[in-house]
Automatic annotation (TrEMBL), chains A, B:
Residue span, Aminotransferase class V domain: 4-350
Tagged with keyword Amino-acid biosynthesis: yes
Pfam families: Aminotran_5 (PF00266)
List of residues binding L-glutamate: R41
Function: Catalyzes the reversible conversion of 3-phosphohydroxypyruvate to phosphoserine and of 3-hydroxy-2-oxo-4-phosphonooxybutanoate to phosphohydroxythreonine.
N6-(pyridoxal phosphate)lysine, modified sites: K198
Gene, per the UniProt record: serC
Binding site for pyridoxal 5'-phosphate: W100, T150, D174, Q197, N239, T240
Pathway: Amino-acid biosynthesis; L-serine biosynthesis; L-serine from 3-phospho-D-glycerate: step 2/3; Cofactor biosynthesis; pyridoxine 5'-phosphate biosynthesis; pyridoxine 5'-phosphate from D-erythrose 4-phosphate: step 3/5
Coiled-coil annotated spans: none
Organism: Rhodoferax lithotrophicus
PANTHER family: PHOSPHOSERINE AMINOTRANSFERASE
E.C. number(s) listed in UniProt: 2.6.1.52
Name of the protein in question: Phosphoserine aminotransferase
GO MF annotation, one: transaminase activity
Length: 362, 362
């Protein structure tokens, strides 16, 4: 059995997917070619691409008026690509609830007026701001949130409803670290983007779902390869896409369907998160500072009250085959990322170790 | 034995590399993790990255005053990224010798004055323009060439010497489709970029080699993730890099070293190209229109004088396990791409088929 890998991303992949990828490495379906070796314009890769897109559309119930784009550069590149495509050089609003949305607000200022409508930094990014309290601009080009903050472990359990706030602007969500972990309410979303390296596949692939009416707003300085209209009109093949990564993501999509789809994953993810948070909350050694109503089901940061035990904790974890539990360098402590590919057994093994370590250091 | 795959890119990979990648898919070097699953900040991937960079630097004899960057988006993205980083919004010069340099000249016009110093379109992109005939600007920010045109099959056998032309500007080369096929004369180069999907590894990875004195010229509108200084200062990890693709490229670099390095590859590539061009030139059925002194050693476009035989030619090739020989849609005909990973035996098999088909249709 492989160790349990709690990396925040790139992150654990389903064993079944990796086995299949290894088996097909030199010969995909009798074609005589590995997927890495195929022209992106050929019929073999065309089939891989079409199936990946259709499976993802089905899994996430993406409406017909949204385009699915397979781009490159991850969330940090999208922090520029979104305002290049959507801001029209006007004002965009940002709700800052952690490291990622903060970076998004900062990068956008190169291309438009970047207005911070709310900021939870004062409480250490441990809560979300109630949407009713957001100070939105009069007519923002869009409103940006990070729907799951990977570093701070804060997640919107429900997407905000801009219309209910009297705002007609499209909502942009960075769903990098919880995409495909739960359903998406597309009626509230104009654009969603996410790096693949947490829940979808290899690093270097970015998923963008964009409502068609938002495709034609790009600034003239937007690079052609990053222009949503150009990417959409060329089925993500204006430039050569990350073909192998799309293939791996496609295998993940088929694995998700075999698991019962996104609703089944959500139920499993809620059970995993509940087990871990209850263990942390019931302990006198560990602490998670995030408010109950916005705790991430994917990324669980926690601290040892006695931080001098950190190294001993991590060493013991490694001995028990529990890997990559060290917290992000910007916040310290520990972090357990429990994405789709982390089975309940992995969280149970972590919980067992948390209890064991606590009993040894009570 | 696998078929011989003449795809222009993504393209054939060395069997040894694919075998090793398959074997390590679920567990890299006893780490308990596949490479796709590793944090890019961890020591395991740190080792993979450091070895890949060092091996590439050794193979290509990259001088110490050049940074090697592992970026994303391929050559078409670099068509914007280069002027965003180097043009200062002034004038950049382009030598247009085929489809790729033409696209580069066009994209740059978004960010600077794009001056075409020479254009060989009038002769169907079958020659290069003598550098002495180039109409360079007075003080261009840089001079761009595509040192191997993948579609048109035109290659600079020697890089132009801008200093000898009285021009102090840095030379930018797009070496996507012949990188690592021969040595690079870095004394003549300021920046080189190339998509990985021909000679280095999977699509979605871009190699950039940039002289250090060119790192600080970016326009304020350059996205952070695409800013050479930012990428260089973060060892290509400002945003999450395409980790698995870097790993595969690293395996290719080790394979290249085992083959005897770049000088050995160049000798082999020259022998492969000689065999193929001599067969085409000695035929009354096939024709290659590119001038002798600038024929690409990597991409060999050719035509059947009787184009009604095209489908029969391709069908017969597939029967003989010779794949992806159809020419680019923009120029038609055939194309054999014979990158590093194509063995001499593959070219010999193609030559045998060319002769057989010709004898049947004489």
């Amino acid at each position: 059995m492989r160790p349990y890998n709690f990396s925040a991303g790139p992150a654990v992949m389903p064993d079944d997917v990796l086995h299949q990828a290894a088996a097909e490495m030199l010969d995909w379906h009798g074609s005589g070619m590995g997927v890495m070796e195929m022209s992106h314009r050929g019929k073999e890769f065309g089939q891989i691409y079409a199936e990946a897109e259709a499976d993802l559309r089905e899994l996430l119930a993406v409406p017909a008026n949204f385009k699915l784009l397979f781009m490159q550069g991850g969330g940090l590149a999208e922090n520029a690509i979104v305002p290049l495509n959507l801001s029209r050089g006007q004002t965009a609003d940002f709700v800052v609830t952690g490291s990622w949305s903060q970076k998004s607000a900062q990068e956008a200022a190169k291309y438009c007026t970047s207005h911070v409508a709310a900021n939870t930094k004062a409480n250490g990014y441990t809560t979300l701001a109630n949407p009713a309290s957001w100070q939105l601009s009069t007519q923002p080009a869009y409103v940006h949130i990070c729907s799951n903050e990977t570093i701070n472990g804060v997640e919107y359990h429900e997407l905000p409803d801009l219309k209910a706030l009297g705002c007609d602007a499209p909502l942009v969500i960075d769903f990098s670290s919880h995409v495909a972990s739960r359903p998406v309410d597309w009626t509230r979303v104009g654009l969603a983007f996410g790096g693949a390296q947490k829940n979808l596949g290899p690093a270097g692939l970015t998923l963008v779902a964009v409502r068609e009416d938002l495709l034609d707003r790009a600034l003239p300085i937007c690079p052609s390869a990053l222009n949503y209209r150009t990417v959409a009109d060329n089925q993500s093949m204006y430039n050569t896409p990350a073909t192998y990564s799309i293939y791996i993501a496609g295998l993940v999509f088929k694995w998700l369907k075999a698991q019962g789809g996104i609703a089944a994953m959500e139920a499993r993810n809620m059970a995993k998160a509940k087990l871990l948070y209850e263990t942390l909350d019931g302990s006198s050694l560990y602490i998670n500072r995030v408010a109950q109503d916005c705790r991430s089901r994917m990324n669980v940061p926690f601290y040892l009250r006695d931080e001098s035990l950190n190294e001993a904790f991590l060493a013991g974890a490694r001995e028990r085959h529990l890997l990559q539990l060290k917290g992000h360098k910007s916040v310290g402590g520990m972090r357990a990322s429990i994405y789709n590919a982390m089975p309940l057994e992995g969280v149970q093994a972590l919980v067992n170790y948390l209890r064991e370590f606590e009993s040894q250091h009570a």
